[in-house]
Amino acid sequence: MRAVSGIPSPLRRVAPHVLGPRPPTPGALWAAHRRRALSAAFCVTAPLAFFVLLGRADLGAAAALGGFTAVYGHALPYRRRSVVSAGVGAALATSVALGGLAGPHPFLLAAVLGLLGAAATAATAVWQIGPPGPLMAVLVGGSASALGSAPDLIGQHVAAAAGSAALSWLVVMAAWSWDPAGPERRAVAAAESAVAAAERGGLPDTRPDAVARAVRIAHVAVAGGSRRRRSLRPRLEEVETRFLRTLPTTAPTTATGPRVPAAPARGHTPLWVPTAVRIGVGAWAAGSLAAGLGLHSPYWASTAAVAVLLGTDARHTRARALHRVTGTLLGTGVTALLFWLDLPVAVSVALIGVMLVGVELLVVSQYVLAVALITPVSLSLVHLGADSPPGAVLIAVRLGETLVGIAVGLAAGLLLLPRPGSRRLPAAVGATVERALAAAAAPPGGPADAALRDALVAQHEVATATRAELFAAPGADLELHRSRQVADLGWALLGARARGEDALSAWVGARITADLAPR
C-alpha cells in the first residue's frame, strides 16, 4: 500500500503487512475479472434465490455451494475448461455428500475434510487446475455438514449441488458459442500489452516476472485453444521475440555454498505429495482441535488452515496468515452489522451476490478485502440454510475457529515435511544450467535439446514446490531467482530452434553462455 500523507511513518510501514497492497483501480479490476465475478455471483445466487422462494433455504444453500464451480477455469481455453469445470462440479457435489454424511460426527468430519483437502491438492497439481485450488472442496464439504444429515436430506442436497454445478458449466462455457477463441486471444493481448509496457519503460535488472508470466500464460492458452479460428501463434511468436529482446543482461548469480552439478535423483516422490500431506494433515488437525475445544463448526478451522497453507510462495504464505486474521475481523464486523439489521431474505440473497462480485474482483490483488467479503457470504449461507447459533454467538465462534485454523496451519507448514523443494532446488538448477550450456553449444534438434527440455520440466516442478513452502531453506530466494533466469533462457532457446529462427536462437545461445557459464 502506498504511503499516504498525513499518516505517521510507523503506520505507513505497518499498514501493507496488515492490510495488504493497495488494489488496482476499480476500472482495472472490472476489466480484468468481470466475467469471473459476474459468473460466480449468478451461479451462486440464482439457485439460492430459486430454492428460497420455494421455502427450502437448505436446498438453496446446497445449490449455492455447487455454484462455486463457476470460480474455476476462467482463464482456460474452452476445450480444456469444459473438462476442468465438469470435474470441479463433480468434486464439489461429492464434497457435499461426504460433508453431510460426516456432519453429526465432528472428529470424523475433520478427517473427511483432511482427505478432501489432500485429494483436491493432488488433483489441482496433477491436472494444473489453478486457483482457488483445494480451498473450495474443504469449504463446501464443511458447509454442507451444517445443512442436515438425514439420508433423504443429503440426497436432496447433493442433487441441488449437482444441478447448480451443471448450471455453472453452462454459464462458464456459454461464450464459446460466439467467441470460441476468446480466452487465448485475451491471453495473447495481455502478453502483448505487458511486453509493450516493458519496451516503453525498460526492464529492471532483475527478472521481469510479470511479463514472463503473461507470455507463458499466452503460450498455454494458444496451445490448448480453439481449432475453429485462425491460429494466434504467429502473433504470439512476434510478442515472444520482442520480449526476449527486452531481457536485461544479468550477471551470474553468486550462490551461497557449493552448487551441486548433478541432476536430481530419479525415483523421488512427486513434489506435490508433501504439499498434499501438509494441507490434508493441517485441515484434519485444525478441525480435530476445534472439535476437541467444543467449537460449533470445526470445518471453519479446517478451511482457515488450508487458506493459510495455500500461499503462492513462502513470503506470501506467512503474510496470508496475517491477512486472513485482518480480513476475518473486518468480515465479522460486516456480518455483525448485517445480522443486527435483520434484513429481509431477498435483500440478504442480493447482498450475497454483490459481495461475491467483490470477492472475485479482489481475491487476486487484495486478499484482505476478499476475505472480509467471503466471511459474511459464508456466514450468511449457513445462517439462511441451517439451524445455526444466534448471530452474535456465530460471529464469536467463527473468530475462535479462525484463530485455531491459522495457528494449526502455520504449525503444519513449519513442522510437517519441511523444505522438500528448496533442499532439492540447487541440484535441479545446477543440472539445468549444465543442460542449457550443452544445448547452446550443440546443433539444433539433437539429444542436447531433449535433455534441456527434461531438465527444465524437472526444475519447474522443484521450484513450484519451493514457492509453496511456508519456511524455505536458507538461500531459497536466491535459487528461485536463478531458476527463473535459467528457465527463461532455456525455453527461449528451445522455442527459437523449434520455429527455425536461426538468428534468434544464436542470440539466445550467446546469452546463455554469457549469463550462465561459470567464471
Detailed description of the structure:
There is one protein chain. By secondary structure, this protein is mainly α. Helices cover 74% and strands 0% of the residues. It is built from 20 helices and no strands. It has helices at 9-19, 26-53, 57-67, 78-102, 106-126, 135-144, 151-173, 182-201, 209-223, 233-246, 272-292, 298-309, 314-341, 345-362, 367-385, 391-415, 420-441, 447-467, 476-498, 502-516. Helix 3 crosses helix 7 (151-173), helix 11 (272-292) crosses helix 16 and helix 14 packs antiparallel against helix 15 (367-385). The radius of gyration is 24 Å and the shape is globular. The two termini are 41 Å apart.
Q: Could you write a compact summary of the structure shown?
A:
The protein is an all-alpha fold. The protein has helices at 9-19, 26-53, 57-67, 78-102, 106-126, 135-144, 151-173, 182-201, 209-223, 233-246, 272-292, 298-309, 314-341, 345-362, 367-385, 391-415, 420-441, 447-467, 476-498, 502-516.
